[in-house]
DNA sequence: AATGAATGAGGATTCATTCAT
DNA sequence: TATGAATGAATCCTCATTCAT
């Protein structure tokens, strides 16, 4: 897509400005991904962006401000990626599997995201809470739809909330556990299987299916 | 239990020394619990313990050293608490419920533990890994026993591992989500219920129980 | 010599930067000269330079770094001064006298140099060794030339080395001994005389000139 | 030599006390010899003496106090050693050679002395000055005697002083230069030779002996 | 007299932020 | 708008010295 240019073909002031801002943002994401928020100094960020320290403050009011922006922007990308990947699915379980996998494929593409996400809880708590609300809301709608369609058990909204937390937590932790020292996630296929198995059947051995779900037996 | 005293009834040097060390440890736990590792300065810790800054270094070689000790000590307490609470349980599900509840009752008793646990991943990674290994190993033995007893589905050890991660993650996240701004955990009963429901039956609506577990229907 | 200026007549950033660095260097030299390396704190140095503490670290990576720079820079000045003063001399003894005197006149001009030089042995050992090597090498060439010209006794190179150490030591110690509490060197003329006398004739009374140099008597 | 004991054969309180003091002194000497004054902390000294930190202050009022005592005590030992070694000598030159060599043999026996001596200039200046005065005074008497005996040139007392400084400096520097990284002095024989040669004849080549000592030539 | 814990002043260093150019 | 030097608050840590036991 062609960019707007001035008559002489040079970039607009606005464009140039946006580029610098993006460069800072990208640099910050990488630096936080590599060193963590604590060691993401302005010096490091501006150096990576090939800019002077002072320039930073032309675009962000403070160090915290850019930290607070990291997760919202990247989180939106993550959601978009997941939606796109899980779009074609029909059944609840299919969709769940696809979006589960999509989360991990996103991490492969953007390895620094996981650290940003994780540490944000500590260093950008507001942003983290917001991100989390976004995820939860989206998930809630999905589960409500599945419930309405009779695809999943008839849980109250009050139960749906902790359930979502559990599923989201699961993804995050698995990612963390299966990330090697180089920051590359390598999820074993068993993880996917057992995740789906838990969702479908729970853990209890068939022979011991509790009485209170006996109802299943008689259609 | 009566403490050893000197003939004059005063405390031993050793005792006094232990008390001071404990005071520092306790102060550090509280300060980290309240402000997080980043803002747990030596000044804050020693002030809370009513000691001079220099005294700190009579007991710990560095700030990091006490940080590294926090989780192991408190984590052991947590495990002890859970074991004690879940001791009486018979079935897998019972035990799981009791230890699940025990985790949260421990947090009620020791509110600063959660933050210490969470941030340790970043600020005391070695300690965190070790703590995690402890938890995982303990959990693994438990699940293997249940599997041997036919109480849970016949999952491979390779599947047990991610499963454990999921369950552990679940507890941690729920705690985080249901902790209010004062650091008090308030887990809704629905969370317990849905957790156990997930373990027992999974999520899928009875009418849609996948074919591969049809076996359940015919005793 | 006119300094480069910007169009507006103000100093360049680079110039300003050099000035600040020089100010720090000069301040450090003075402070070390007055208080010694041990008590040459960053606080003292920056205060003397009328700069904030932090500014120091924009120019030097550490306290040790500036310490290591002191002697090389000032030592080079010393050598230059001596060379310039002793330039015109013809004979060995003349040159020796001039450079001997030049060493002390340099100390008059730069009173803090002596302490910097002396303590450097302890606090900037690398720099001190290097300085010493420079001096020694320069001296060695000088003596070799004099030897080749038959101006001094025909000593082996292995003898020249300790000899140089002796001469260098002599200057340093004399300076130390004849420095008063205000740091001002006041070398008595006798010191010069006896130094030259030692070089020319040694100490032994004429009547007792050892046999092995009897050769002198008969041309 | 039998030590005074109490009736029961135990050591006197005074004796015990002296032993502890000596242990501290010896420890301090070693520590300063190894690490230098700067890093000779009370902790290090008392640890080496197998005593508690506090014990130090029962014997010395301050860290500086023991520093100030080091050189006087060891310096006296050095002088005693030199006197003993040079005792038998007859001529000036013989005595000079023996005491020159004795200085270095003392360093072989007490390797930490050199560092103590050198750094004392900075860290125990008073003691250093005193030590220096002792040396100088002793040397002066020696030279005056030699002068009276007509063994050395007829120098004024005002000339003897700087001369002594030169000779003392020479020894110190040579020791420094020929000490290896393990603190062992290894003086090459050339150093002795050239030292004595300088004393006997000076440096000037025989053919160029200055006119003002021509007197030598004609008996 | 011996002990060793407690003290707190002091020092090097880091780094977010400001600001003149 | 970009720059990068200047700032100074904040922090960890060391260590001589004190003092109660």
From TrEMBL, chains A, B, C, D:
Q: Name one GO molecular function term.
A: DNA binding
The yes or no answer to whether the keyword Phosphoprotein is present is: no
- Per the database entry, where does the chain bind DNA? 41-60
Q: Which domain of life is it from?
A: Bacteria
Boundaries of each HTH tetR-type domain copy?
Answer: 18-78
Q: Which InterPro entries match?
A: Homeodomain-like_sf, HTH-type_Tx_Regulator, HTH_TetR
Pfam families in the cross-refs: TetR_N
Record's keyword terms, sorted: DNA-binding
Recorded hits in PANTHER family, A to Z, give: ACREF/ENVCD OPERON REPRESSOR-RELATED, ACREF_ENVCD OPERON REPRESSOR-RELATED
What is the protein name for this chain?
Transcriptional regulator
Organism listed in the record: Azospirillum palustre
